[in-house]
Each structure stands twice: as structure tokens, then as C-alpha cells.
Design a protein that fits this description.
0% strand, Arc Repressor Mutant, subunit A, mainly alpha, single chain, Rna Polymerase Sigma Factor, Chain: A
Length: 214
């Protein structure tokens, strides 16, 4: 992605298209995490994705960053702004309910953690930061390939960080059924990730023992 970003900033149109295509799944996953259950009848995550990418295309010449992390953070800021605009159409109580969802995409320019399972180390080298950003994109692309129920449970559990009781309630399942669904989703996600990325092993460590999960 670094090469595409550099070429796009120099005015290479095809490189810009490749850059945006590479980030679509990433933006879509974060938008999905932002659109909470109470918003779903009023806000379509795909509309947020479309508006965010259109805004980024329109304002691309104003993007002053140079790195992949700065680029992803800029996209997250645009998404957060668009999510906030959507929320402002609703009542005060709903705005309060949405605060957590907005924060998922409301990353500042120095925030490169995004939605990856493991945050990047504050002392990471440029090469480690680049690998972290690439891992986020790989995760987003892999999650996008999952069946809808698998995507849903991963969004609720791993992005929104909800306890399993709440995950089960959102999915209209029993807690054991929600836990089993999540375990199957993580297993399938691990299978979709390239071995060379090391993410499959990381996910394996993150699942733990189902009975011990909160």
C-alpha cells in the first residue's frame, strides 16, 4: 500500500483507484461496527462507506500524510465525521447511546491501532508500523469474506468488545450458542488469513477458552 499511496499523491490515477480499493473492506468493517442496533433502521453502513470514500476522493489533495498509518487514520476521521452527522439527525438520548460507536472510528491523526486485535507498540519501528497497518487491511478483507452471521459476531465481540451475554442478546441466541458461533467464526477467519501474516496464530491465542470468556 505504501507504493500506491506514494504514486497516488504524485497524481497517478490508477494508483489512487488501487489505494481506495485496498481500503474499502477496512472502511466497511469500521462502519459496520459504528452502526449500532438502534441505528440500523435509520443508517445503512454501506451509505457511510460510500460517503466516506467519496469524501476522501474529493479531498485527497488535502491529505498531508505520508505513511499508511496516517492514511488509515485520515479515513477513520472522515468516517467518524460522517457517522456523527448521521447521529445528529436523531434525538439526544440516541446521541448518548451512540458515543461508544463513534469512538470506534473516531481515531485521531496519531492513532494507528484501528481495530486490530493487538495494539501497536508505542515504540514500534517504521517497518513494524507498516506491518501492523498491512495486518489491519488483511483482517478486514478476510472478515469481509465471512458469512454474515460470522461477521456479526466478530463485530460485536472483537470490535465493539461486548460481553457474551450482550452478544447473545443482540444475535437472539443463547449465550452458549453465541460463544460457539464466535469460536467457529474465529476458526474460519484463521483459515482465510495467509500463513505468512502470522495473524492466524495471533487469533488462536486471542480466543482462549470459551467457558472462561465474559
Amino acid at each position: 500500500m505504501h507504493e500506491c499511496l506514494a504514486l497516488a499523491k504524485r497524481g497517478d490515477g490508477p494508483a489512487r483507484e488501487r489505494l481506495f480499493a485496498a481500503c474499502r473492506s477496512y472502511v466497511a468493517l469500521l462502519a459496520r461496527a459504528n452502526v449500532e442496533k438502534w441505528m440500523q433502521a435509520k443508517v445503512d453502513a454501506s451509505d457511510l462507506v460510500q460517503q466516506t470514500l467519496l469524501d476522501a476522493h474529493r479531498d485527497f489533495d488535502r491529505f498531508a500524510g505520508q505513511t499508511e498509518g496516517e492514511w488509515l487514520a485520515w479515513l477513520r476521521q472522515i468516517l467518524a465525521h460522517n457517522t456523527g452527522d448521521a447521529i445528529r439527525h436523531f434525538g439526544t438520548a440516541e446521541k448518548r447511546a451512540a458515543k461508544r460507536e463513534v469512538s470506534l472510528a473516531g481515531a485521531g491523526p496519531d492513532d494507528s491501532a484501528g481495530f486490530a486485535w493487538e495494539p501497536v507498540s508505542p515504540g514500534a519501528s517504521p517497518s513494524q508500523l507498516a506491518l501492523h497497518n498491512e495486518s489491519e487491511l488483511l483482517l478486514a478483507e478476510a472478515i469481509d469474506k465471512l458469512p454474515e452471521d460470522y461477521r456479526d459476531v466478530i463485530v460485536l465481540r472483537n470490535l465493539q468488545r461486548l460481553p457474551f451475554d450482550e452478544v447473545a442478546s443482540r444475535l437472539n441466541r443463547s449465550r452458549p450458542a453465541a460463544q460457539m458461533l464466535w469460536a467457529r467464526a474465529i476458526q474460519k477467519l484463521r483459515e482465510l488469513l495467509p500463513d505468512s501474516s502470522g495473524l492466524g496464530q495471533q487469533l488462536g491465542c486471542s480466543t482462549g477458552t470459551i467457558g472462561d470468556e465474559q
